[in-house]
Design a protein that fits this description.
D-isomer_DH_NAD-bd (chains A, B), five-stranded parallel beta sheet, Rossmann fold, 11 helices, 16% strand, alpha/beta, oxidoreductase (chains A, B), homodimer, D-2-hydroxyacid dehydrogenase (chains A, B), seven-stranded parallel beta sheet, 2 domains, 33% helix
Chain lengths: 323, 323
Amino acid sequence: MSRDICVYLEFLTEGHKAQIRETARRTGFVPHFFTLDQFEEAKACLQHCKVLYAHSADLLRTAPASLRWYCCSFAGVDLYCKDPALFANPDCLLTNSNVYGVTIAEHVVMVTLMLLRRMPEYAVIMGQRSWSNQLPVRSIRDNEFTILGTGDIGRNVAERLRGMGAAKITGLSRSGRPHPAFDEVRPISDLDDVLPRTKILVMALPSTPDTIHILNRERIALLPADAYVINVGRGTALDQTALAEALNGGKLAGAALDVMDPEPLPKDDPLWDARNIILTPHVSGNMTLGYTCDENVARFCADLENYAAGRPLAGLVDRALGY
Amino acid sequence: MSRDICVYLEFLTEGHKAQIRETARRTGFVPHFFTLDQFEEAKACLQHCKVLYAHSADLLRTAPASLRWYCCSFAGVDLYCKDPALFANPDCLLTNSNVYGVTIAEHVVMVTLMLLRRMPEYAVIMGQRSWSNQLPVRSIRDNEFTILGTGDIGRNVAERLRGMGAAKITGLSRSGRPHPAFDEVRPISDLDDVLPRTKILVMALPSTPDTIHILNRERIALLPADAYVINVGRGTALDQTALAEALNGGKLAGAALDVMDPEPLPKDDPLWDARNIILTPHVSGNMTLGYTCDENVARFCADLENYAAGRPLAGLVDRALGY
């Protein structure tokens, strides 16, 4: 029986490959490495592979029914959950890589501080080479935060805000199950109760049918006028038109979006000109950070050991839930 | 004997005034409050006061020899240490308000992340409404920091970097005395040894004769080309011309200056156009943050209790050292 692994990734260093080879050797597997410009070679190899470590729907679509495990190097796997036709074998295991929490949390801390400390306005002042420094700033210390999503990202954000003296951190999740990173976790069905007392809303939700436009026009109106909205989950989670209108109308203090719908954002989208907005091109979780790449490989190797030993996979995705 | 206190400050709320009145009542003092547009009234009152709580060399200069304690609401008191003629009575006590560590540390975390995550470059990309997201980012986690100055600011910075997973935090101070916020504290005379292995240099030094241009051209050249320089202490602590040249020549990765010499920075200063620089108009420790104002008043009140009880003042400045 085949013990081949097809690895189709761009970010691997020689060290990462050596680490995968060594784990594979110990567990009786043989890895085959391809970069993104070797699609045809990867596809040919995949035909006799049991495991695929990649992030490519196009490649996955070509896999035979003998593929037993697809390890996606990304965290967001909605694409793979929505379309069962991608898997020739419906029992093929799907894992994702929840290793983006650290880098995304650093992004969230950065944009939170940029909003609280009025950096979009100071950028304009300094861009004119003028010198005015009396804009009232606010701080993470003693402030209250609401985090939509209590997974890897939400927890890493909460831990960092806590370290900087946040007064209260409320998490919202589907289950509402408590987690020590949060002062309280409430079910997402309580969202309408929580929004009116939210000062900074951090959105870190996967894309599922339940989360599409979860922050709709009515809910944006529930936020106080001095609230900030930060989205690092999926662009579809909020109503961008309503957000831009609230910002421009002074109904919201500011926003920072790293994810948008669609991406790239069209050049004539009103978001570009919205008041007090920080836009970044989906970089909060990008793969250029060594730590993220190292952890990605480490998690794959750990799950390869699990797989070989017949243990449950740590990164297993529930395709019905979408994460 | 007079038990009058002259308070000449702009930031006080009614709550702050009530707090000062109550502490004064308990300790047998009488406070008199003036805003900055009441200079003449404050000056007239000061003539029979024992205590002055303000930040004004002009007012201090008019004080009689009977003034026993000047509580400066700012942290940087170099101005008052340099010029003995400001004090009619050479034995007048001088205290400063080391309450800016929290807000300045939040500023430092913000600009550190902005530099590591390439925000000056992403601001240009997004300003053109284009969408490119492959600039390699770095993280606070697993990074090494050198902090020049281990006082209130340096410690607050170190604690926050630690909370975000910094690998190593080296402090440098005059004495080199260890402090738990740092992995190690070395005497500032070791600076030349520390700079070549510094990835992020945070400068939080008071202005004294010893710190003027402490980061001179030769020392800037000792930093690695991928290092970042952040200054929140005093603008005079670094050679701005050499810094701009190093940035433009690719000898340094970036810099964030909240303090400059002079301030405001002249419109034709080469710093404005330096590569990968973040300039802010001396806002990191500004008085618009409620927490900073509250702490300022709380420290004054605590030292008023100390003063009345004949105990040493917590904020006492050594005028020979300058802090």
